[in-house]
């Protein structure tokens, strides 16, 4: 339920201090689990440059992938919010680049999603629409839709998503399509037009039947477009988290 308290606790792992939900079942859907470190006895050499470890050349583990490197190949400390680390942590060159790109989502797009946008919302095949504010919940697990009525969509129960662009309708080619957020990855990105709407299929709590939800930008189309673009990025991270 979305009413579960968002309490957090500070825990220490071999990789560093982490601020995690008190109940692990309520982790952010964007979060990644800490990797298992490659055992020291299995990595006599750096897994990047093949330098042999000795008393001078110490081995270091990348906090994101868990592989073993020399100091030169694993010297960068980069923030890793997807694993809830309090401070920047040591990462290899490849992982640090990925983490740096993800920081834009946490610094910018996530704030847009939490702030919300205004949309004209249509449920199912109904001919009735309602103007509602859609925002991401603070624990990142739900989309809250508020207008004259209120309902919510749990991200983990979304089965497909289309980000529509100007001049398109559901099913056309010039859309950003996520054919299944739950079961696999199939992303088709079309054009550079401004995002104008979103089509979701999801299973409401307690139901195995898919429900359709269509959202079209309402009053502030620029803000709505920014919100949809942020949701586009969020969907990619959801795929990665589920595919790990």
From TrEMBL:
Gene3D superfamilies: Zinc finger FYVE domain-containing protein 21, C-terminal, Zinc/RING finger domain, C3HC4 (zinc finger). It holds the Pfam family FYVE. Keywords: Metal-binding, Zinc, Zinc-finger. InterPro entries: FYVE-type_Zinc_Finger, ZFYVE21_C, ZFYVE21_C_sf, Znf_FYVE, Znf_FYVE-rel, Znf_FYVE_PHD, Znf_RING/FYVE/PHD. The keyword Zinc-finger applies. It comes from the Eukaryota. Residues 40-95 form the FYVE-type domain. One of its GO terms (molecular function) is zinc ion binding. SMART domains: FYVE. PROSITE patterns: ZF_FYVE. PANTHER family: ARRESTIN DOMAIN-CONTAINING PROTEIN D, ZINC FINGER FYVE DOMAIN-CONTAINING PROTEIN 21. This is Zinc finger, FYVE domain containing 21.
């Amino acid at each position: 339920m979305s009413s579960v308290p968002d309490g957090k606790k500070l825990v220490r792992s071999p990789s560093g201090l982490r601020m995690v939900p008190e109940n692990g079942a309520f982790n952010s859907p964007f979060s990644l689990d800490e990797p298992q470190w490659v055992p020291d006895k299995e990595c006599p050499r750096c897994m990047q440059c093949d330098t042999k470890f000795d008393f001078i050349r110490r081995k270091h583990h990348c906090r994101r992938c868990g592989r073993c490197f020399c100091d030169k190949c694993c010297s960068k400390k980069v923030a890793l919010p997807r694993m809830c680390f309090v401070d920047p942590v040591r990462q290899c060159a490849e992982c640090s680049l990925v983490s740096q790109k993800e920081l834009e989502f946490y610094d910018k797009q996530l704030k847009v999603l939490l702030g919300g946008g205004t949309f004209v919302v249509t449920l199912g095949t109904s001919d009735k629409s309602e103007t509602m504010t859609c925002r991401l919940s603070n624990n990142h697990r739900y989309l809250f839709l508020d207008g004259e009525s209120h309902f919510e969509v749990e991200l983990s129960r979304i089965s497909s998503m289309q980000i529509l662009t100007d001049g398109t309708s559901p099913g056309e080619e010039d859309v950003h399509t996520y054919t299944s957020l739950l079961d696999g990855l199939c992303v088709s990105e079309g054009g550079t037009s401004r995002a104008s709407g979103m089509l979701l299929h999801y299973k409401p709590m307690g139901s195995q039947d898919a429900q359709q939800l269509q959202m079209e930008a309402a009053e502030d189309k620029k803000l709505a477009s920014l919100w949809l673009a942020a949701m586009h990025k969020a969907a990619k991270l959801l795929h990665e988290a589920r595919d790990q």
